[in-house]
Amino acid sequence: MDITINQTFLPHDDPDAALAFYRDTLGFEVRNDVGYQGMRWITVGPPNQPGTSIVLHPPAATPGITDDERRIIAEMMAKGTYASIILATADLDGTFERLQAGDAEVVQEPTDQPYGVRDCAFRDPAGNMVRIQEVH
Question: Which among 98, 83, 96 has a CA at the least distance from the CA of 132?
Fold first, then answer.
């Protein structure tokens, strides 16, 4: 089987702040920016990985979601417990310094984890956990 990761979805509650974080702070390229009925779906991805994208989406647009579920999602996003993504870099310390200088919300400085990885963590403007692991 030949299966690859094409897209993953992360919620946003402020498209301009999400765009600034993923494009300007992380250095991802914008692949698509679509507006519909006052909402925006923004597709970004690493410039060197054209086949892998993150779609930043308005969670309120999910079909079939109830008002109670929208409220719960908003509460979880505010606490940073709704969504996450794990990225990788060969230069964790340099990446951490660049993100910290860009005013990203630091959750954890670079740390050697007991389960064998070295990583750090940030929150994006919507509260999503962005962990970055060091790979060689």
Answer: 96
Pull the structure tokens for residue 135.
């790979």
The reported pTM is: 0.90
Separation between Cα atoms, residue 66 and residue 123, nearest integer Å: 26
- Nearest residue to 91 (alpha-carbon basis) of 114, 113, 116, 120: 120
pLDDT band at 117 (very low <50, low <70, confident <90, very high): very high
Taking alpha carbons only, the member of 134, 130, 128 closest to residue 82 is 128
Tens digits of residue pLDDT in 53-112: 999 999 888 888 999 999 999 999 988 899 999 999 999 999 999 999 987 899 999 999
Residue 7 token pair: 């897209």
Q: Say how far apart CA 74 and CA 127 lie, in whole Å.
A: 10
Q: How many C-alpha atoms does 110 have within 13 Å on its Cβ side?
A: 17
